[in-house]
Amino acid sequence: MAATTGRTLLLKFGTGTGATTVAAARTVGFTIAGEPVDVTNKDTTGQMRELLAAAGIASLQVQVAGLLVSGGTQDSDFINRAGSRSLDLYTLAFDASNTIVGSFQVTSFGISGGYNDAQEFSATLESSGAWTLA
Fold first, then answer.
1. pLDDT, tens digit, 9 for 90 and up, residues 74-86
2. Which end of the chain has fewer CB atoms surrounding its CB within 10 Å, N or C?
3. Full-prediction pTM beyond 0.90?
4. Which helix (H) or strand (E) holds 79?
5. Does residue 14 sit within a domain?
């Protein structure tokens, strides 16, 4: 199996052909997590932990970081979305042909810059509801 480059992992505002890639992103990552439901009890064989199948809360978290572009809009887009705590559609494109589409909330957004460095941004998005892998 051939490896794929990190630059093909993209976060996009919106879905379908109208989706726009987050400008100047340098790193994008995501984590899928599931909270287990422990049903271990006194009758459990060997007192080994038992988990309830298909239970608990599943979530998807997206991290993005990059450069602020002069005249760009990603900073105001993220600030407005974080401030309003809105749920917006996003697309994650990865592995050359896979996508994850879903509703996400920007839960954190920050801008930083050293004295002699470029200004950078970072944001975290959390899923709300079901997301689709295609």
1. 788 888 999 999 9
2. N
3. no
4. helix 74-84
5. yes
